[in-house]
Amino acid sequence: MKKYVAIAILLVMTLGFYSCHNEDPLLKAARENALKQDTYGVFDGEKAIFAYDDDKHQLAYNTSSYMCRFQNDAASKVIQMNLDDFPEKGATRKLTLKTRGLPSIGKSCNVEVLKISPEESKVWLLDHESLMSFIMYYEFY
């Protein structure tokens, strides 16, 4: 009898282990797409909703409030991103968005911090719900 109980426990533990390690394929693809992006902005998969262009856009930031803002010269397209706390790789943060002239971007979401690059002043973020990714400017000191 003890032998069957031990086998049953082992089977349950094995199934639990494998179910925890099977990542949703859509989430996995979204992570890969996000990490492929090299420019600041907002992306839906591989499609740029807003991609920063140094010749066409302005950049403002406030490191102490975890904020960056991109806008075109006419201020007809604006996106401001605010994190609720310091971006640490692997952490989940609340991202609040303020936009103008950019449809299909929500007001706030919880994002996973995928990658940080102090050398490039970039933070890669992913919203697990919408699968949108955000590449944010951040000055690391």
Which descriptors would you attach to this protein?
globular; 9 strands; nine-stranded antiparallel beta sheet; 141 residues; alpha+beta
List the helices and strands and how they pair.
Elements: H1 2-21, H2 25-36, E1 41-44, E2 47-51, E3 57-62, E4 67-72, E5 78-83, E6 92-100, E7 108-117, E8 122-127, E9 132-137
Antiparallel strand pairs: 1-2, 1-9, 3-4, 4-5, 5-6, 6-7, 7-8, 8-9
Q: Would you mind describing this structure in some detail?
A:
The protein is of the alpha+beta class and 141 residues long. The chain has one domain. Helix content is 23%, strand content 41%. It contains two helices and nine strands, in the order ααβββββββββ. The protein has a nine-stranded antiparallel β-sheet, with helices on one face. The longest helix is centred in the N-terminal third of the chain and has 20 residues, at 2-21. The chain is globular and about 75 Å long. The N and C termini lie far apart (62 Å). The model has no long low-confidence stretch (mean pLDDT 88).
Amino- and carboxy-terminal Cα gap = 62 Å
Number of domains: 1
Q: How much strand content do the residues show? A: 35-45%
Helix proportion? 10-25%
Mean pLDDT: 88
Report low-confidence residues grouped into runs of 5 or more. Answer: none
- Give the spatial strand order of the biggest sheet: 2-1-9-8-7-6-5-4-3
Inertia-based shape: globular
Structural class: alpha+beta
- Number of separate strands: 9
